[in-house]
Amino acid sequence: MMICYKDDATCIQMLSVQPDTKPKGCAGCNRKIKDRYLLKALDKYWHEDCLKCACCDCRLGEVGSTLYTKANLILCRRDYLRLFGVTGNCAACSKLIPAFEMVMRAKDNVYHLDCFACQLCNQRFCVGDKFFLKNNMILCQTDYEEGLMKEGYAPQVR
Ligand SMILES: [Zn+2]
Ligand SMILES: [Zn+2]
Ligand SMILES: [Zn+2]
Ligand SMILES: [Zn+2]
């Protein structure tokens, strides 16, 4: 299955309120905005204090000029990436790996922890175990050497 991934980033605009316009309602607290400045994001108006990251409570108008939305949450960039960002595609199962997940890396490839096993015998590796990358497949030492033998590339004893 192909997963489409798109950054749901929205620009925050800082607007100064014209004295003659009637006050806008804040999307955060539902009260009228009587401040001199208000924020506009997601087609709504907000108090500077009311546009906050749902995770860390930081005021988004201060942190930067973008906010991120996902699943009805408003998030700062850092939390968005932590929760919904991706590390890349797992080289074994080719599914996306979320940024917050632990990964195994081998050369340029990343793997889910669960996927990092010999792709022939499913043996898992422990720290310090030898593994081999051949044709982009992870192999344990046994299968790697067996493969070499079959192909006739057995190490020559000199
Ligand atoms: Zn408000
Ligand atoms: Zn945050
Ligand atoms: Zn995987
Ligand atoms: Zn193996």
What does this protein look like?
There is one protein chain. By secondary structure, the chain is an alpha+beta fold. It is 14% helix and 29% strand. It is built from 3 helices and 12 strands; from the N terminus they run ββββαββαββββββα. The chain has helices spanning 60-63, 77-84, 141-150; strands at residues 9-11, 13-16, 37-41, 44-46, 66-70, 73-75, 86-89, 96-98, 103-106, 109-112, 131-134, 137-140. The strands form 5 sheets. The chain has a 3-stranded antiparallel beta sheet. It has a 3-stranded antiparallel beta sheet with strand order 2-3-4, with no helix packed on it. A two-stranded antiparallel sheet has the order 7-8. The two termini are 49 Å apart. Mean pLDDT is 83; it is low at 1-6. The protein binds zinc ion (4 copies). The site of one zinc ion has 8 residues, from strand 12 and helix 3.
